[in-house]
């Protein structure tokens, strides 16, 4: 199975804590496994390395029964000790794990008997099984403390090639415990960040599937008799992110001016070609439970944008950094934004950045750039990872104690109606005060060869929530 993908750089590592772009995410599914996964059918958590779980009445204490008879690629049997060590490593701020925002609510992690792991929380959380499906939380021998980038875990394939920014390969792990995944003898992922080159690799038969198909090219690909388009609506979203702790974006009126100057309908029509829906400057849509569906939709309003821009007192151009590494059409989206801002008298200066290094040198570093999120299984997880004070992936650097308090309250709330009210308050805070401009939720669009069978549509993320190479088979 050969896969051509956008989203890889020379700075990528096999340490799951560092996964921040598409290729590490997908390749991690090839060689690693987590305690739980989310079902492609209904999005609910299903057991993987955790065979089952049970919670206390207040959902503050959880016991996970760890599956027996599962071996790591080095031949060692996976135990509860490995699970404890993994979760503790990702809870350590020094590990700089992308899952740290999720793990912050955990107070204690310890072995419980021969096959159990006991997790205690600082407050009740009915979503813990969802949280432990986070793709960073791959269970490793001794938690990865010996060598986190060794690429050794329990997945259906063993790593054979690790050339960051170029190529990855893995061969079947004989004796893997799950018959429903791992159908090909080997999997190879080629880093092909250029869309035209990815399309050529697919139509020529060099690869069997590609990710991030630009909606503008779908018509062209559909002409190829050996190719089919697989698009899935989900939680993924394309964003423009402002660091609220850096000038000039410390000014809320400037942030509001830029939000009102965004033409969302135009973005969905011209960038997504209809393969998506408009966003409302908070990271939640109807794919999530308890979605606050009564919040008024923000629309393009140059008069409001002018008002807030004048009120901000800002003078001169606003610098926006972008690259198509952020998302397909990001550079074109930046130009559309530049044009709509001009209608409000706001000058946007665009700086196109190299694709290689974008995720290490621009995203989460520079104060205003384009980016994307694949979404998360629950609202709590999305907000915990990206909007909670101090989370490593809080890429707008936004911090509001009142928001953090609501997050904790919603997490422990068992009444759905009340929980929805709390999430509504949080959404309004992000929408009206935060550094997020979210013009559109994108469909996940892949293209596959007619030699590929059983492509599973999964709203959890792109490429069948990262599982496409191991769920699909070759005819």
Give the class from helix and strand content and strand pairing. alpha+beta
Q: Would you tell me the overall average pLDDT?
A: 95
Specify Rg, calculated over alpha carbons: 22 Å
* Adjacency order of strands in the biggest sheet: 8-9-10-1-11-19-12
Spatial gap, N to C terminus: 11 Å
The biggest beta sheet is recorded as: 7 strands, mixed
How many helices? The count is 16
Give the % helix: 25-40%
Apparent shape: globular
> Would you identify the regions where 5 or more consecutive residues have pLDDT less than 50?
none
Strands, total number? 21
Strand % is: 15-25%
Note the topology.
Elements: E1 2-5, H1 22-31, E2 36-38, E3 45-47, E4 50-55, E5 61-66, H2 80-91, H3 100-103, E6 106-112, E7 116-121, H4 128-131, E8 157-163, E9 167-172, E10 186-191, H5 195-203, E11 209-210, H6 218-222, E12 227-232, E13 237-242, H7 252-260, H8 264-270, E14 276-278, H9 302-312, E15 318-322, H10 330-342, E16 348-352, H11 358-361, E17 368-373, H12 379-386, H13 401-412, H14 416-433, E18 436-442, E19 444-449, E20 452-453, H15 462-465, H16 468-471, E21 473-474
Parallel strand pairs: 1-10, 1-11, 15-16
Antiparallel strand pairs: 2-3, 4-5, 5-7, 6-7, 8-9, 9-10, 11-19, 12-19, 13-17, 13-18, 14-18, 20-21
Helix pairs in contact: 7-9, 13-14
Describe the fold and architecture.
With 475 residues, this protein is of the alpha+beta class. The protein is built from 16 helices and 21 strands. The protein has a seven-stranded mixed sheet with strand order 8-9-10-1-11-19-12, sandwiched between helices. Strands 4-5-7-6 form a four-stranded antiparallel sheet, with helices on one face. A four-stranded antiparallel sheet has the order 14-18-13-17. α7 (252-260) packs antiparallel against α9.
């Amino acid at each position: 199975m050969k896969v051509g993908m956008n989203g890889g750089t020379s700075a990528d590592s096999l340490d799951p804590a560092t996964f921040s772009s598409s290729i590490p995410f997908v390749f991690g599914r090839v060689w690693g496994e987590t305690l739980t996964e989310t079902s492609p059918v209904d999005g609910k958590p299903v057991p993987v390395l955790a065979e089952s779980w049970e919670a206390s009445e207040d959902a503050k204490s959880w016991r996970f029964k760890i599956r027996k008879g599962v071996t790591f690629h080095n031949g060692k049997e996976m135990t509860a000790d490995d699970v404890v060590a993994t979760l503790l490593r990702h809870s350590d701020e020094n590990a700089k794990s992308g899952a740290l925002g999720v793990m912050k609510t955990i107070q204690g992690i310890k072995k419980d008997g021969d096959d159990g792991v006991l997790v205690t929380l600082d407050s009740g959380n009915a979503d813990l099984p969802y949280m432990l499906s986070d793709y960073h939380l791959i269970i490793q021998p001794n938690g990865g403390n010996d060598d986190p980038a060794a690429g050794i875990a329990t997945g259906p394939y063993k790593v054979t090639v690790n050339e960051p920014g170029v190529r990855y390969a893995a061969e079947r792990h004989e004796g893997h415990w799950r018959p429903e995944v791992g159908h090909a003898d080997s999997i190879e992922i080629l880093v092909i960040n250029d869309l035209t080159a990815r399309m050529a690799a697919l139509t020529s038969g060099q690869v069997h599937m590609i990710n991030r198909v630009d909606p503008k090219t779908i018509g062209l690909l559909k002409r190829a008799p050996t190719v089919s388009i697989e698009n899935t609506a989900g939680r993924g979203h394309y964003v423009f992110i402002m660091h609220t702790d850096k000038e000039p974006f410390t000014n809320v009126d400037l942030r509001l001016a830029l939000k009102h100057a965004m033409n969302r309908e135009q973005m969905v029509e011209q960038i997504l070609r209809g393969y998506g829906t408009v966003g409302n400057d908070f990271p939640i849509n109807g794919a999530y439970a308890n979605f606050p569906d009564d919040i008024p939709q923000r629309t393009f309003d140059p008069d409001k944008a002018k008002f807030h821009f004048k009120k901000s007192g800002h003078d001169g151009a606003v610098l926006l950094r972008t690259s198509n590494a952020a998302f397909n059409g990001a550079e074109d989206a930046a130009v559309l934004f530049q044009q709509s801002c001009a209608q409000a008298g706001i000058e946007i200066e665009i700086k196109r950045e190299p694709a290689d290094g974008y995720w290490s040198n621009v995203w989460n570093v520079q104060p205003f750039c384009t980016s994307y999120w694949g979404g998360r299984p629950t609202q709590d997880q999305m907000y915990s990872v990206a909007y909670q004070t101090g989370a490593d992936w809080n890429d707008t650097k936004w911090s509001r104690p009142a928001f953090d308090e609501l997050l904790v309250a919603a997490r422990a709330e068992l009444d759905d109606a009340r929980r929805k009210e709390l999430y509504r308050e949080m959404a309004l805070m992000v929408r009206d005060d935060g550094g997020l401009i979210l013009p559109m939720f994108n469909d996940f669009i892949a293209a596959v060869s007619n030699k590929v069978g059983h492509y599973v549509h999964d709203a959890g993320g792109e490429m069948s929530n990262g599982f496409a190479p191991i769920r699909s088979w070759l005819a």
